[in-house]
Amino acid sequence: MGRVAELAGVSVRTLHHYDEIRLVQPSARTAAGYRAYSAGDVERLREVLAYRRLGFGLREVAELVGDPSTDAVAHLRRLRGLLLERRDRADAMVAAIDRELEARAKGLMVTPEEQLEMLGARLYDAIGGAYTATRRTEPRIAARIWDALGDAQTVLNVGAGTGSYEPADRDVTAVEPSAVMRGQRPAGSAPCVAAAAESLPFEDQSFDVAMAVSTVHHWGDPITGLREMRRVARRVVVLTFDTDEPGWQDRFWLTRDYLPEFAAVLAEFPSLAGMAGAIGARAEPVPIPWDCADGLFEAYWRRPGAYLEDHVRRAMSVWTRVGPKAEQRAVRSLSDDLDSGRWAERNSDLAGLDAADLGLRLLIA
Questions:
Q1: For the domain with range 133-364, which CATH number is right: 3.40.50.300, 1.10.246.90, 1.20.1510.10, 3.40.50.150?
Q2: DSSP string, 63-128
């Protein structure tokens, strides 16, 4: 027990307590009668300590590690998802601090309410709240998705967020790991399960179709998540992004001319071919209309001034991922080019387009 405590970075008293409350009980004894941990015991201890360090109470931890439907891999995927969410929260907090520092450097007043919104418990809710202000169902994109659903009656929406693109005429079950996003789902929405794509808590072939819309890039392990969708549903429909095409970073003027850091955001994103192969899908391009109602990252390709609006950018995860310095530089450069007319001159070919192919792809399996 002493050796295990040393390796785990906890006290022997902690291990005794876990034994007493039947949370982690050594399953063996040495010849001298001392408690001994098997490999399975150590694995369970690892899970307990990981959940504890993420802030879970002992009762919650006991329920999590005692869940008969999960194994070590499922726990690792769940822990990875929780850590990624915490990382995103930390990134958002850093961005909020930088904005306050910039405001103070300019001599601007920061009210107590703004301070609490930036650094207090409402920070993530405030950032997530921007999502509903600009992220809405775009009917023309929705029509493509719903057409791909075919005659499916039972639909699983993975990474469902606030519920955009969920068809109202089907029996929908949503999956969303973020409590902030789940809390913003409107009244009357489909029932929503707190789970990650990589470990869906459903039996094989439970649904006619599993769908995922503009969410795969947020998953810790996209290929595993896609395979999970394939496991629990007879068909799969996914709206995602294509990084296979050579020079894909240059398709969109914002990433080409102002935000080269975008390429690093998707550096580890799997190829479109790899994602399609994982579920046996075909890929179809989804052009973005010039007046797209859904404020996704590429939505304002013909309305560049929108990217100067803070509330518009806050609903796009890209800006948090690239960091405040890159964001401020990009916004400043774009503003200068709009004022001087350089943007209009450089992108004159966009003026007559009703829609643009900027890499959105629909995978249909």
A1: 3.40.50.150
A2: HHHT-TT--HHHHHHHHHHHHHHHHHHHHHHHHHHHHHHHHHHTT----HHHHHHHHSTTHHHHHH
